[in-house]
Amino acid sequence: MSSAVRTYRYLRLAMVVLVVMLLASVVRERLASGTGCFEASVSAYVHTPAQGVFVASLVALGVCMIVIKGSSDAEDVVLNVGGCLAVVVGLVPTPDPATCTATPIPMQLVPEQVANNVGAALVAGAVGLAVTVAVALRQGDLRRADLMTRRNLAGIAVSTVLLVVGLVWFVARRDGFVAHAHAVAAIGLFACIVGVVGLNARDCHRRGAPARRYLVILVLMVVLGGALLASQWFGVALWLLLAEATAIGLFAVFWLLQTDELWHVGTRAVGSDA
User: Fold this and answer.
1) Is the dihedral of CA 166, 113, 181, 44 positive or negative?
2) Is the predicted pLDDT of residue 270 greater than 60, yes or no?
3) Is residue 199 part of a domain?
4) 79 near 166, Cβ under 8 Å?
5) What is the domain count for the chain?
6) DSSP code of 269?
7) What would you report as the CA-atom Rg of the chain, rounded to the nearest whole angstrom?
8) Using alpha carbons only, what angle is made at residue 185 by residues 110 and 129, rounded to the nearest 5 degrees?
9) Is residue 94 domain-resident?
C-alpha cells in the first residue's frame, strides 16, 4: 500500500475526528454551564469556554479540505473554496453573543481578534497561492496548451478571486467584515459541502451503492438547508442549532463513507465523472 493512499485515508478520518471533537466540546459546555439550555447555534459557542476547540476544529477542517485532492477537478476546486471559508468561519466569530454560559468570552475582544487572526490568514493565503503558482510553473503545468492547463488556471483563478475579495472587504469595510463575514462564510461553506456531496452522488444509477449513499446524504443536507432557512424566518432558535449539528454530523458521515469506498485506492482518477 502506498503512502499516498494512507495519507488520503488519514486526512478523511482526521476530518471525522475533528467533527467529533467539536460536537463533544459543545456538549461538554452545555453540561458544565449549569444554565440548563443550549446556545442558539453551534457558532455561538465561540463566545464560551469552547472557543479554543471551535476555532481549532474549523481551521484544521479547512486545512484538510484544501490539502486533500478531490476525485475530479470540480470537486477539488469546491473543496479548496470550502476549506478557505471554513478558516474564515473559525477565525471570525458570529456577532451573536452567548446567552447560555456562566463564563462568556468578552465580545469587546472580537474586533482585535479578527484584525490579528484574519490578517495572518490572508498573509498565509497569499503565500500559499504564490507557492502553488511557482510549483505549477516549475512543473510546466501552466505552459502546456491542454485541458489540464485550463483546469489548473481555473483553480488558481478562483483562489485568487476569493483572496482578493476577502482582502478588499477586510481592509476597506472592517466593521462590515466583522459583523457579516462569519455568516457569509458559513453559508458558502455549507453550499460547498453540499456541492462536494452532490458531485460524489452523480451517476448513482451507474456507480451503484456508494453513489446512492452519497445521494441520501445530499437529500438530507438539502432538507436541512430548508430547516436552516425556516429557523431564521420563523425565529425558532432550536431549529438552527439542531440543523447545524445534524449537518456537521452528516459531513462526518460523508467522509466516513468516502474513506470506506476509497480505502484501497485513495482517490478516483482526476477528471472522472465523480
Assistant:
1) positive
2) no
3) no
4) no
5) 1
6) P
7) 19
8) 100
9) yes
